Amino acid sequence: MAGILFIISAPSGSGKSTLVSQLRTLVEGLDFSISYTTRAPRGSEENGREYYFTTREEFERMVKADDFLEWAEVFGNYYGTAVSALRHAKEQGKDLLLDIDVQGALQVIHKMPQAVSIFILPPSPEVLEKRLKNRSVAEKMTDESVIQKRLAGARGELKQVWEYKYALVNDVLENAVEEMKAIVLYERGEQDSAELAASCRTDAASAKLKAVLEAFQE
Ligand code: ADP
Ligand code: 5GP
Question: Which atom number of ligand 1 is nearest to the Cα of residue 138?
């Protein structure tokens, strides 16, 4: 494979799943790592499709056996990326995309500095709250305390944006999808995407990113 490892993180509700699923219809050769988690399946989720659903005991056994490239506790549940996901993508000749939280991303960035890390930001706290509420209505899980916990979590996670190579603000969906596609294609060597990808580098976009971070600290 080109063998590129893409890491994507975002505060919950920023639109990461929406973006990633659109990206996968536009870009070929991108394998999606299926994580292990101890949380229960939601809605129509199936074991082996969205996640491998497992018990805390089994997860802890895998931690001891060094089966994870990274793992973390997120909102009270364990989540982890199996080392075997990397091996599998390599065998298939594909790039691998990890959709993981900030704690896990920092572990991977540290272990594999060549990984391409992308952080997705919501445009503002107001928009994030609206998206979290809309989604919770759609999933019939309208628990205000869960939404408030996720908003508070976002504040902390956003501060880590500078650890990532790229960052994009998911305001207008089509634009964010184009930016994400440009990053992937540029990292694969396509010079046509260089300008758009460069504008998403964390250092190049710092003024825009700082404005979002400030709105979250108010
Ligand atoms: P995440 O995976 O980051 O938790 P989701 O992809 O589930 O977030 O998106 C949260 C909600 O916001 C969903 O209802 C989704 O349809 C909506 N959404 C995502 N991106 C946008 C966007 N750019 N504009 C408006 N709504 C969006
Ligand atoms: P959800 O339960 O909403 O699917 O995911 C909650 C959070 O866990 C998201 O931020 C998601 O990116 C993160 N996550 C999913 N899989 C992994 C993983 O394997 N490792 C880590 N560290 N985080 C993960």
Answer: 14
- Residue 121's domain comprises 5-33+95-217
Instruction: Check which CATH number belongs to the domain holding 12 and give it.
Output: 3.40.50.300
How do residues 40-99 score in pLDDT, each as one tens digit? 998 889 999 999 999 999 999 999 999 999 999 998 999 999 999 999 888 988 999 999
Pocket of ligand 2 (CB under 6 A): 12, 35, 39, 70, 72, 74, 79-81, 99-101, 103-104
pLDDT level of residue 1 (50, 70, 90 thresholds):
very low
How many domains, in total, are found in the chain? 1
Ligand number with the minimum distance to the CA of 100: 2
Question: What is this structure's pTM?
Answer: 0.95
pLDDT, tens only, 123-140: 999 999 999 998 887 776
| Residue closest by Cα to atom 23 of ligand 2 | 100
Q: Which CB contacts under 8 angstroms, 24+ apart, belong to 211-218?
A: 212/121, 212/122, 212/123, 212/124, 212/158, 212/169, 213/158, 213/159, 213/161, 215/124, 215/125, 216/124, 216/125, 216/154, 216/155, 216/158, 217/155, 218/125
CA of 99, closest atom in ligand 1: 2
Domain assignment present for residue 156? The answer is yes
Ligand 1 neighbour 22 (Cβ under 6 A): no
